[in-house]
Amino acid sequence: MSDVPHDQGSTPGSSAPVQGADGQWRSADGTWLWSGGQWVANPPTPPPPAVPAAPATPTPPAVPAAPATPTPPAIPAAPAYQPVRPPTAPTSGNRFDWFVRHKVWTAIGAIVILIAIISSATSGGGSKKNAASTTGVTQPTTSTGSNTEPTQPQSPVDRVRSALGSSVHSDLAVGDSKVRSVSRGGKLLTIILSTPEGGFQGPSSDDADGLTSAALAKAYLAGWNGPAFVEFEGGLASRATGQDLPNAEAFAYRMGGGVAKQINWSDDNALFSIDWSIYRIFCHPAFKGCT
Q1: What is the pTM of this model?
Q2: Which of 35-39, 87-91, 94-98, 198-202 has the lowest mean pLDDT?
Q3: Would you call 252 helix, strand, or coil by DSSP?
Q4: Which of 46, 119, 236, 271 has the fewest CB atoms below 10 angstroms from its CB?
């Protein structure tokens, strides 16, 4: 069997065979292959396998824009205040003098009352029946021909209001405070007082401390047994207009019901030794002792 076509002139489809790079003889048109003894159909060369396309890179999701930061609301400027008069506070020596003066006047009053009782007992007359009728408490009754109703007992707030009266005085303060209102909200007693005038240079935190102790003593001795709130209003003027601010808060105090039960409100010495700034929850910086 010959490797070279023996009849090169008679190859099908061509006049001359062509040797390929693989050493095989083929017709010039590539349709016939010399197998060594005869021409056979040349099988078509299979196309190279298709290279798979690279997967498309996924588009990253869009990042949402950050929300705009809201503009914070403008903070209103605090109203300007100024004291009616420059504040001051009594010295510790004056405070001690007030305490001594209070004790002296209390002793003098007790002596006067004792002398009056002795004088009444030695010079008074009448039977024991008359004496009992003048000193006893008469209960309201329903009389014949009229429908007189018994007097209703006072509420705790009414008793406190009666005990405070129209103003509060303390030997530890310069000037009195007018009682503006006495009210109750739930278990809390609220006492609103006017800011005292104070000394030559105006009121101070010491004045407010002394008046607070006096007001709370009257409230708890009148039967109140819960928490209490004392507020002083007024004593300030606007720096912008110079007008008085009668309702501006000057001082505020808070007394808890549990602590109040531990204080002997009838003992002046005990009340004098208490540091009332412990219960002070607000003190306007325009007054001395608040800064």
Answers
A1: 0.49
A2: 87-91
A3: strand
A4: 46
